[in-house]
Write a structure and sequence with these properties.
It holds the Pfam family PcrA_UvrD_tudor. It comes from Variovorax ureilyticus. Keywords: ATP-binding, DNA-binding, Helicase, Hydrolase, Isomerase, Nucleotide-binding. Belongs to the helicase family. UvrD subfamily. Helix 12 packs antiparallel against helix 26. Strand 15, helix 26 and strand 16 form a beta-alpha-beta unit. It is built from 26 helices and 25 strands. The chain is an alpha/beta fold. Strands 13-14-12-15-16-11-19 form a seven-stranded parallel β-sheet. It has a six-stranded parallel β-sheet with strand order 3-2-6-9-1-10, sandwiched between helices. The longest helix has 21 residues. The structure holds a DNA duplex (15 and 10 nucleotides).
Length: 791
DNA sequence: CTCGCTGAGATTTTT
DNA sequence: TCTCAGCGAG
């Protein structure tokens, strides 16, 4: 099954590739799976393969379809490809699943049953649309929280299911399906699509329209998919539509080649619909003839790599892969146990300062954690030590409220029926249109079956007056902006909407105004980058046509290659404004406010995927946190936690630090945590314990790992924020007043000897959960039960 | 309309 | 404990 690694034809592109990489780059036509370990040069292989296919004349640029998950990955691929070959990368179908589906739907909007100006709802918009819907139909939001409905709808779409396809197992299900149906109708009426809809609509159009499907099947000779382990059911089905035929329900691979690149060990998005099983299905259904493993790691020293390998070997469901490196062992992986999360943070900062003294750049140091809430303590410690840091995550540029407001104005210009946008701005800035007027308007709109914008004339009275003024303002703006450049449109809207004025009056509005000005810049650079200049559009088409001719392909077939995705029949393209709005929805922008600065990097493990640093600190390695308590109960999600840990470890190039804390302030309570089981799954030889192993008297093996943590009110007060001034506290000080600790062996007069598995409360309320070998697990009030430590 | 209170919820997240 | 959404009072 595995491909012969004989050296293929020479090409400068193939220089400096190892045999596996080279084999992957030069795979013959046919379907293939590339198992690419962390740091194995996956992106390089993917891009080089595209370049090689083009260079050897096996395919024209138009015959390539390369799909990624993030805009960042897509951009990187295009940049690298552009550096390898003098080819117009913008015109190629390289992009995210959603970006490509958008392009496809823009070209075939009519066939897809969409208005040509359809706009995209992001997650926020989707939630507010659902809330609005549920209010309208008087759905009990106690029983059906809007968030849950959103989750349900998105989940269904990820599985490729329309309301009628969803199986109802309960009355609640039936209600949710009904809401899903109503939501769909609302979106259709308003001319908007959510992220899931982009995928699902595209899939359905391919499935139901033979000429369209056949056209694209003929066209995309080579399909390449990055991060295949993260694909969901629908995305996999979409690929099948492009790559083969599903006549009479059975899939038969087509003539085109599909190369899937992925790493099952790095699958960490099951919670949002990703299905690792797609990899195995792919091998079977696509009758994969070549599988290649990229196991040579170019990133980390072997102590780090061995740790990763050993850890992940505890997962049973794997395709099987072991990373290796030619680099030496390097530094040992350092492990630190602290008494409190404050002390842990303090230790991290101290270590970092030492690393800085050793000449390591701050931006080469990262602190990783399982959940966002953990960043706080770390931030405080860094702040107090005056170490510059940057936190990933949080609001992105296009998600900021003021930006969303401005975009809503712009969207309503483009599509007057977009009720979500209408509601967002109808009274922002405030113009005397309150809840009552809006309700009246909504009733009128529903009665007339029209959009809010169109229903305004039906509302009388003072409310009607204000509303009419608003709509008139919008209509005037729409008129005025005809023929204007994108920049002029935005400036005019910012001015006439009153947004700028509104924020000027606000004491804390300065940042918001700055962001709004940044929006103008974003639009400006969008125009230049996307090639909106008049001649910039024409050029790539010509080039492509020429290259098609030289490849002996039909020059007259429709070329849907321009970034603007013109209508497939008329060639009409979106207005710059509509294109920019699409861009804003599909690419929520950076959240790296001060990117480029030399600052320490803080992020969740999820956010770290795909990144690498010289020095990595993985903090909070405690049972209940990492692995997370919600994932400890079932085996599948525990394996995902382990993969998450694997991802975290493999981010480090030179040094890796692991830490856990005996206590942690969480939700305002002090939790007593035992160290993560993952420590027991690492090779002892690669580790160096900075604190004595198992210090603190507990023996994890004595009682297994069943939710061994407890909470205690007020116990955290003894480690105030002041402790930041002092060096790390020795572990002994953490014990609460009763002197008991998780893991301790204790004696009880009636039950005999047992192990403390959890502690909760303080003072008179203090309770301990004790596991007695003969009597099982008991909760004991410490004020009543006499527990004596066994020495 | 804005302010301030109350109560629920508090993994992970891209598009 | 903290945050944020939703709601009632001024």
């Amino acid at each position: 099954m595995f491909t012969d690694l004989a050296a293929p034809a020479d090409s400068p592109l193939l220089e400096n590739l190892n045999p596996e990489q080279r084999a992957a780059v030069t795979l013959p036509a046919g379907n293939a799976l590339i198992l690419a370990g962390a740091g194995s040069g996956k992106t390089r292989v993917l891009t080089t393969r595209i370049a090689w296919l083009l260079q050897t004349g096996q395919v024209s640029p138009g015959g390539i379809l390369a799909v990624t998950f993030t805009n960042k990955a897509a951009k990187e691929m295009m940049t690298r490809l552009g550096a390898m070959l003098p080819v117009n990368v913008r015109g190629m179908w390289i992009g995210t699943f959603h970006g490509l589906c958008n392009r496809f739907l823009r070209a075939h909007w009519k066939l897809a049953g969409l208005p040509s100006t359809f706009q995209i709802l992001d997650t926020q918009d989707q939630l507010s649309a659902i809330k609005r819907l549920m209010k309208q139909f008087n759905v009990d939001d106690e029983r059906f929280p809007a968030k849950q409905t959103q989750w349900f709808i998105a989940g269904a779409k990820e599985d490729g299911l329309r309301p009628r396809d969803v199986e109802a197992r309960s009355d609640d299900d039936r209600k949710k399906i009904e809401l899903y149906q109503l939501y769909e109708e609302q979106c259709q009426r308003e001319g908007v699509v959510d992220f899931g809809e982009l995928m699902l609509r595209s899939y359905e159009l391919l499935r139901d329209n033979d000429p369209v499907r056949e056209h694209y099947q003929r066209r995309f000779r080579h399909i390449l998919i990055d991060e295949f382990q993260d694909t969901n059911r629908l995305q996999y089905a979409w690929i099948k539509m492009l790559a083969g035929n599903t006549a009479d329900g059975r899939f038969v691979p087509g003539d085109n080649s599909v190369v899937a690149v992925g790493d099952d060990d790095q699958s960490i998005y099951a919670f949002r619909g990703a299905r690792v099983g797609n990899m195995a299905d792919f091998v079977r259904e696509f009758e994969v003839s070549h599988q290649i493993k990229l196991e040579q790691n170019y990133r980390s020293y072997s102590n780090i790599l061995d740790s990763a390998n050993e850890l992940i070997s505890h997962n049973k469901k794997r395709l099987g892969k072991n990373l290796r490196t030619d680099q030496g062992p390097g530094e040992p992986v350092r492990v630190y146990e602290s008494t409190s999360d404050f002390a842990e943070a303090q230790w991290v900062v101290e270590e970092m300062r030492q690393l800085m003294r050793d000449g390591i750049d701050r931006k080469e140091m990262a602190i990783l954690y399982r959940s966002n809430a953990q960043s706080r303590v770390l931030e405080t410690a860094l702040f107090n030590a005056a170490v510059p840091y940057r936190v990933y995550g949080g609001l992105r540029f296009f998600e900021r409220a003021e930006i969303k407001h401005a975009l809503a104005y712009l969207r309503i210009l483009e599509n007057k029926d977009d009720d979500t946008s209408f509601l967002r701005i109808v009274n922002f800035p405030p113009r005397g249109i309150g809840a009552r007027s809006i309700e009246a308007l909504q009733d009128a709109a529903r009665a007339a079956g029209r959009s809010l914008h169109d229903a305004v004339s039906a509302v009388g009275g003072k409310a009607g007056g204000n509303l009419s003024a608003f709509v008139a303002k919008i209509d005037v703006l729409r008129e005025q902006t005809q023929g204007m450049s994108l920049r002029e449109i935005i400036e005019l809207v910012l001015d006439h909407s009153g947004l700028i004025e509104h924020y000027k009056a606000d004491r804390e509005g300065a940042d918001r105004i700055e962001n709004l000005e940044e929006l103008v810049n974003a639009a400006e650079s969008f125009v230049t980058q996307e090639g909106f200049g008049r001649d910039a559009v024409a050029l790539p088409v010509d080039e492509l046509r020429q290259s098609s001719v030289s490849q002996g392909l039909d020059p007259n077939r429709p070329l849907l290659d321009e970034p603007l995705a013109p209508d497939a029949e008329t060639g009409e393209t979106l207005s710059p404004l509509a294109a920019f709005l699409t861009h804003a929805a599909l690419e929520s922008g950076d959240n790296q406010a001060q990117a480029g600065q030399d600052a320490v990097q803080l992020m969740t493990v999820h956010a770290a995927k795909g990144l690498e640093f010289d020095c990595v600190f993985i903090t909070g390695l405690e049972e209940g946190l990492f692995p997370h308590e919600n994932s400890m109960s079932d085996y599948e999600s525990l394996e995902e936690e382990r993969r998450l840990m694997y991802v975290a470890i493999t981010r480090a190039r030179k040094r890796l630090y692991l830490s856990h804390s005996q206590t942690r302030l969480l939700h305002g309570q002090t939790r007593y945590n035992i160290k993560s089981r993952f420590f027991d799954e690492l090779p002892e030889g690669a580790l160096k314990w900075l604190t004595p192993k198992n210090q603190g008297g507990f023996a994890p093996s004595a009682f297994g790992y069943g939710g061994g943590y407890a909470t205690s009110r007020g116990a955290g007060s003894s480690y105030g924020r002041e402790t930041f001034a002092s060096p790390p506290v020795p572990p002994q000080k953490a014990a609460p007043s009763h002197g008991l600790r998780s893991g301790m062996q204790v004696f009880h007069n009636k039950f005999g000897e047992g192990t403390i598995t959890a502690l909760e409360g303080s003072g008179d309320d203090a309770r301990a959960q004790v596991n007695f070998p003969r009597h099982g697990v008991k909760w004991l009030a410490l004020s009543v039960a006499k527990l004596t430590p066994v020495t």
